[in-house]
């Protein structure tokens, strides 16, 4: 681990500030765990109250400040409140909701989203002074949009320091891939990324396959960093000699990106298995907004229960209460391209919990490969309900199999995802970027 003086001064640019309110924010907080607070600053665009657990030095850069005045007031006249992201304004949110079932509305929403993302950025003098006064050694960002990529590059150029981009899904290859704004939106994505990469001595990604692909694609070295977990998540493997009348499955996570469809498949399989005498139940813990939007799709399933939304400190207990943990991804072609290199925030948490995993989603996506590498679960890699029912039956009835998979997962999590070791490697990588070194010197 670096000494206090060796930690670089890092300016983090993001939408969501350090907090525990989302998977991205939690990953960010875990990776920067133990960082000297006086060597960490953050510019965030979201109207979210930041936590002081990791960082105390913030600059809130809300939409009102980074849109041009003519844009800002025009959008306010359309019903935007000026605080939340433009995509959450009433008119655009209404289009988004309609887009769930109407392709024409989906296209309209994509055009509106692209227009907001590509619009010019205004940088107030107060932000420029704040960034320069902080005197960072390096700028770091998880990016996610053209607008945030441009703000990140601007921060690095303003401070005269390198930038380290961290890609957690393959949005550069999929964002605006349907010809939004007559193709201009996708070109803007590629141009913004290319300009940012010229400022980056190295990059970060979320999986080893992504590191290999991005090194080939962008010509700089990339190092994989997944979410890491502290001791509160590690648990003993369940004593399978203690038989319970019902096998409890649990899913903790979001339902968007059509993940609810894969969960619905599992629920339908459980109903069929129950008819054959297998007592099993799935409890879904999802954000309140997702439960309100997608909960109706599970109403007819007798073996599915919609549990409460969980705060971050409630997750470990929910994982331990289950016999099997469920991870799902969408089989939709466009979405599987987006998630193909991603490893969900919850996968390290699942592995550490001492419970086996049922993975249901495309076999090629990195999250499923991660579970296979850990030998911690049963993967159903095709959209085949018969195969799903068969593997569910095997996992529910074979207690020895569950114990073996759970033990493998815990061992793998200690080796690969323990917070202290991952955070130390993360800090050393940012130090090397600040010094202009190659990440290859650290491996």
From TrEMBL:
Highest taxon, organism lineage: Bacteria
Keyword field contains Transferase: yes
Protein's UniProt keywords contain Glycosyltransferase: yes
UniProt keyword terms in alphabetical order: Glycosyltransferase, Transferase
Residues of the Spore protein YkvP/CgeB glycosyl transferase-like domain: 280-426
Domain Glycosyltransferase subfamily 4-like N-terminal: 121-223
Annotated protein name in UniProt: Glycosyltransferase involved in cell wall biosynthesis
Record organism: Micromonospora ureilytica
């Amino acid at each position: 681990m670096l000494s206090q003086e060796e930690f670089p001064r890092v300016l983090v640019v993001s939408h969501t500030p350090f907090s525990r309110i989302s998977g991205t924010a939690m990953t960010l907080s875990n990776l920067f765990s133990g960082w000297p607070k006086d060597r960490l600053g953050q510019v965030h665009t979201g109207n979210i109250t930041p936590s002081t657990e990791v960082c105390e030095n913030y600059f809130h850069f809300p939409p009102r400040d980074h849109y041009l005045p003519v844009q800002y007031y025009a959008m306010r006249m359309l019903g935007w409140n000026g605080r939340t992201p433009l995509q959450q304004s009433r008119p655009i949110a209404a289009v988004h909701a309609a887009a769930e079932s109407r392709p024409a509305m989906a296209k309209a929403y994509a055009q509106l989203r692209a227009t907001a993302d590509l619009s010019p950025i205004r940088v107030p003098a107060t932000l420029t002074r704040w960034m320069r006064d902080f005197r960072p050694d390096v700028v770091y960002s998880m990016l996610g949009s053209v607008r945030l990529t441009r703000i990140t590059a601007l921060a690095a150029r303003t401070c005269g320091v390198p930038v380290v981009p961290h890609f957690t899904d393959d949005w550069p290859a999929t964002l605006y891939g349907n010809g939004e704004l007559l193709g201009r939106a996708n070109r803007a994505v590629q141009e913004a990324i290319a300009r940012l990469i010229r400022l980056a001595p190295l990059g970060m990604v979320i999986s080893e396959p992504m590191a290999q692909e991005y090194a080939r694609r962008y010509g700089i070295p990339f190092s994989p960093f997944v979410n890491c977990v502290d001791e509160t998540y590690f648990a003993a493997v369940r004593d399978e000699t203690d038989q319970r009348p019902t096998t409890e499955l649990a899913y903790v996570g979001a339902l968007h990106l059509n993940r609810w469809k894969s969960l619905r498949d599992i629920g339908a399989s459980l109903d069929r298995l129950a008819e054959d005498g297998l007592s099993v139940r799935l409890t879904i813990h999802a954000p309140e907004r997702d439960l309100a939007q997608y909960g109706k799709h599970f109403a007819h399933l007798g073996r599915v229960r919609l549990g409460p939304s969980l705060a971050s400190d409630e997750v470990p207990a929910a994982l331990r209460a289950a016999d099997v943990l469920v991870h799902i991804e969408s089989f939709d072609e466009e979405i599987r391209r987006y998630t193909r290199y991603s490893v969900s925030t919850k996968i390290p948490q699942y592995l550490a919990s001492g419970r086996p995993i049922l993975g249901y989603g495309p076999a090629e996506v990195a999250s499923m490969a991660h579970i296979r590498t850990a030998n911690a679960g049963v993967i159903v890699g095709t959209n085949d309900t018969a195969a799903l029912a068969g593997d569910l039956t095997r996992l529910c009835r074979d207690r020895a199999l569950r114990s073996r998979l759970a033990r493998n997962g815990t061992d793998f999590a200690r080796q690969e995802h323990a917070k202290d070791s991952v955070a130390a490697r993360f800090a050393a990588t940012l130090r090397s970027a600040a010094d202009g070194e190659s990440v290859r010197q650290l491996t």
